[in-house]
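In response to reviewer comment 3 from the previous cycle, which asked for concrete evidence that the modeling workflow produces usable outputs, we include below a single protein chain processed end to end. The sequence was submitted unchanged, and the resulting structure tokens are shown without manual editing.
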Amino acid sequence: MARPTVRAIAAEAGVSIATVSRVLTGKAKVAPETQELVHQAVERLGAPTNRPVREGAVFVRCPYTLVDYFGVIVSSIAETLDLHNRRLVLNAGEAAQHAPALGSLANDPAIAGAILILPPEPEEELRTLRRQGFPFVVVDPRTPLPADVAAVSAAHTAGARTVTAHLTALGHRVIGVVGGPTEWLSSQARLVGHTSALADIGVLPQPELVRNVEPTTDQGYHAAIELLDHRPTALVCFNDKTAVGALRAAHERGLRVPEGLSITGFDDSDISRSTSPPLTTVRQPLEEMGRLAVSLLVRLMERHTVDTLHIELATHLVVRRSTGDVPADSRLR
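The workflow returned the following structure tokens.
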């Protein structure tokens, strides 16, 4: 393939010939987002670019308390970055949700790339960061992402479908859902999986059997209390924490688990093995998500072409003693 001309690159990138020349020669300062436009145009036209490998630390943003789910992912990222001899700059804790963090990343010479875990930032901020040519990977995106933003997540739809299918195989038909926030991509995907499993046996979803809450133990408890008024035989919960809340609600109502009510979680965190009875749950590959996020980011920082930017990792159903056959009379007290 013939090397593209400067004129062809300028037309492809939508910039002037002079701008292309300045970017390719590196002899004049050009805004990062404009540089990225030119380099992407060169790559689309089939020629190698002269973009240097980015050196420096990796910024890891996890604006949540680092326990259970988040702690496992961050630990995996830290260990994998160490193998790549990359320093980690950590931005974590719930207070970090309200502090601007992305605006200055592209212009920080000490930061080579970033991993953003369930980022609360609006989509436009992520688009801006991408236009600036700054390499980053999103782990478990909160909202749908543009096609050119790299992301790693679990297969939420398939995981939810598997756990609901497990319950329907046990005879359950009236199943309550303690879901996560409605605006979260994972919440939407899991509800799709749950609905799909019900459709397989000819059962229509019932809106009154769905509650969407922040995924905490207390919120899981309150949602379960409301759902139990509708007399479900099983509850599927957004995570293991909300399932613990549901266990407490069942105990207060005098319902034995699983004889009177089956309950499932999601994540397979340590707490799922410590409840009484231990939770049936869906194991997310959290460590693998962290490792893959680092691997993908390193490729982006080293300017390799990445064919697949949105990656979903398989989940695994873990059956324990919190689920059982539907009661013969649909409710034992």
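The first helix runs from residue 6 to 13. We consider this sufficient to address the reviewer's concern, and the full set will be provided in the supplementary archive.
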